[in-house]
Predict the structure.
Amino acid sequence: MPETKYMINFIFALILMIGTTQLLPVHSLASQEYVFSGQTMGTTYSIKLISAKPLSRNLWQEKINLRLKQVNARLSMYQKDSELSRFNAAPKDQIFRVSADFYQVLDECRNLHTLTAGAWDGTVKPLVDLWGFGTKGRRDTPPKPTQIKTALKKIGFNKLKIGDHVLTKTMSGITLDLGSIAKGYGVDEIARLIREGGFENYLVEIGGELVGAGENKHRKAWIVGIANPQKGFLNSGLYKEVRLDNKAIATSGNYRNYFEKNGQIYSHIISPKTGYPVKNAVVSVSVLSDTCTWADGLATALMVMDTHQALALINSLENTECLIIRQDGRKRTELRSSGFKSYEIGF
């Protein structure tokens, strides 16, 4: 009889163990971090995907590369046969049919242009090229005022007519530069690809623009860094660390892409209103938002805007925060939106 009692207790304990195992949450299972990397859009990408189930590295690398290739084929200024390049070469009044990718980005562009009162303007390409930061090669001297005045005549997002998946120029010489939003869109599209694959924990980065969802391999929120905005250094270390809790972050700055002439520094952030590189003492803007497309475009716009107007704009938006860094001589100051501090990590 003692043996029978022992067997009953053993079976009861086994049933309890099985029941407990069935009730364990999925994320408690052993998870593995899969890392994918490569080149796209003239920069690099890095993706971390956390999965409790095995997956094919080769298959996912191919899926990621294919989607990025598709986005680049739509939005690249440097591919002569890209959809964007073909539109830029199109004549005035020609109805140009655009892809779903192009149209989705255009819709965000229209919203950004309206919201920022023209501080973000996707037609700034003639000025960017003129100042040597575009597709026509570098320069080490400022252009002449007459050249800037001529280029300004070809600027104006409102000179584009956007219809149902069609785009038309209302005047000759209008061209699009989507460099300040394309990487963010690429990040969002890879994140969408991963979600559709059934994964909830991931970090996607393209050229410093990021989106993080769920948890990392240590079952904690993703922590990412904002670069120290110091001119003359490719790697100047971290300035801040922030938590990405199902958020995207994009940073725009003038401390890497610039030239200097006669003691004056000319950056690649060009005002679509004046035609000159912006001089508002802002050296870096980081924007947190729900999508990287939106964060990417806003970060550029805030570099152009008056800092107090920029801060007021972000504080008026839901689910969006920013950190603006100014450099006045040797004095560095920070301006934060009302909720940005809650994402910062002390270090």
Notes: Residues 2-23 form the longest helix (22 residues). The mean pLDDT is 90. Residues 79-169 form a domain with the T-fold fold (CATH 1.10.3980.10). Residues 123 and 155 are 5 Å apart (CA to CA).
